[in-house]
Amino acid sequence: MTEFTISGRWQARDGWESFEKTIEAENEDVAVEHTFAEFGSKHGLKRTQVEVSEVAQ
Question: What does the alpha-carbon distance between residue 54 and residue 4 come to, in Å, rounded to a whole number?
């Protein structure tokens, strides 16, 4: 498993907020999917409310 750093922004109640997360995953696509799933479960957001701008290894 490889560690990926994912950065982007998400839609909060008072506007867009930046985020940077480090996730351990098999590849970039899985890391992005985990990011969407985490924001959906913790904040109740849909995929259109989360924008991933960069995925770095």
Answer: 10
The DSSP 8-state label assigned to residue 57 in this structure reads -
Domain at 29, CATH number: 3.10.20.10
pLDDT in tens, 10-28: 999 999 999 999 999 999 9
pTM: 0.89
**Structural domain count of the chain:** 1
Host domain of residue 6: 2-56
Evaluate whether 40 touches 46 at the Cβ level (below 8 Å).
yes
Q: Which among 34, 8, 31 is positioned nearest to 19, based on CA atoms?
A: 8
